[in-house]
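User: HlyU family transcriptional regulator. Structure?
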Amino acid sequence: MGLFSRLFGGSKSEPEKIEPEEYKGFHIYPSAIAEGGQYRIAGRITKEVEGELKTHEFIRSDVLSSKTDANDLMLKKAQMFIDQMGGKIF
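Assistant: Predicted structure:
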């Protein structure tokens, strides 16, 4: 991408496609948020309940220096949340 394209927004990049991780019938979508050179743990948990897609979105206070590490930790925290709350998440 050239200098003028970056300055004047000549090329819009498509949003990153997030592949979910399935866990106990739930789908976990990690989506770390870039913030001040670090990445905040964030994402969403979804599950189809009685034909309706339910979603729980969250943003944690934790920040890490790597996007991959933030997404990995988000998966672990989401799995723990599912284990503790089950269907009460929604």
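Residues 24 and 82 are 8 Å apart (CA to CA). Helices lie at 3-8, 67-85.
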